Amino acid sequence: MLSALQIQKHEFAEISIRPNPKITDGEREGTALKITNQFKAQPTDKEQTKWVARLRIELAEPEEDKVALYTGVIEVVGNFDLHKDVKAKDKATYACMNGGALLYGVAREMLASLTSRCVHGLVELPSVDPRIFMPQKKEQKKK
Q1: Distance CA 41, CA 98 (A)
Q2: What are phi and psi of 84, to 5 degrees?
Q3: Residues 51, 4 contacting (CB under 8 angstroms)
Q4: How far apart are alpha carbons 77 and 131 in whole angstroms?
Q5: What's phi and psi for 10, nearest 5 deg?
Q6: How confident is the model at residue 27 (pLDDT cuts 50, 70, 90)?
Q7: Which string of DSSP letters, residue by residue, matches 36-104?
Q8: pLDDT tens digits, residue range 99-134?
Q9: What's the half-sphere exposure (Cβ side, CA atoms, 13 Å) at 72?
Q10: For the chain, which residues make up each domain, given as ranges?
Q11: Quick one: which H or E segment has residue 32?
Q12: pLDDT digits 0-9 by tens, 57-89
């Protein structure tokens, strides 16, 4: 059985990963990574069966007394088809939560692939709860 959300294509809008030059090759002691996600999704048709989503992941220096192995950005855009039988009230939640999880997996794989060949070694994005990609209610946005 196929999922009600099918990814049609994905493309990288930006990839920029920089190894920290202050760290000795292979050194991992005292390192950490600050990761922030920005996710947007919207339907591209009146029936809300076609969606486009964009996930931007930023890797930055932590705000503590540690340093990051890598800094940079991975941004991926995906086009999705949502099954017509998904209830209207559930479409945005379904498309965002599942579409975000799919794009996160794409970005996670690309980061692992790139860093596995870099001087400081493999870094993987942590697993996340896909509910972080769900659309926020208006009250939540104001906070």
Answers
A1: 11
A2: -65, -20
A3: no
A4: 19
A5: -140, 145
A6: confident
A7: EEEEEEEESSTTS-EEEEEEEEEEE--SSS-B-SEEEEEEEEEEEEE-TTS-GGGHHHHHHHHHHHHHH
A8: 999 999 999 999 999 999 998 999 999 999 999 999
A9: 18
A10: 5-129
A11: none
A12: 999 999 888 899 999 999 999 999 999 999 999
* The CA-based dihedral angle spanning residues 122, 128, 130, 134, taken in that order and rounded to the nearest 10 degrees: -110
- H/E stretch holding 27 reads none
Which letter does DSSP use for residue 133 in this model?
A: G
Q: What is the gyration radius of the CA atoms in the chain, in angstroms? A: 17
- The 10 Å Cβ neighbour count of residue 28 is 11
Cβ neighbours around 50 below 10 Å, total: 15
State the sign of the Cα–Cα–Cα–Cα dihedral 39, 44, 49, 52.
negative
| ∠ Cα 85 54 36 (to 5°) | 120
Q: Domain 5-129 belongs to what topology? A: Bacterial Protein-export protein SecB (3.10.420)
Residue from 65, 67, 59, 48 nearest 4 by CA: 48
What token pair was written down for 115? Answer: 């860093």
**Cα distance between residue 61 and residue 111, in whole Å:** 16
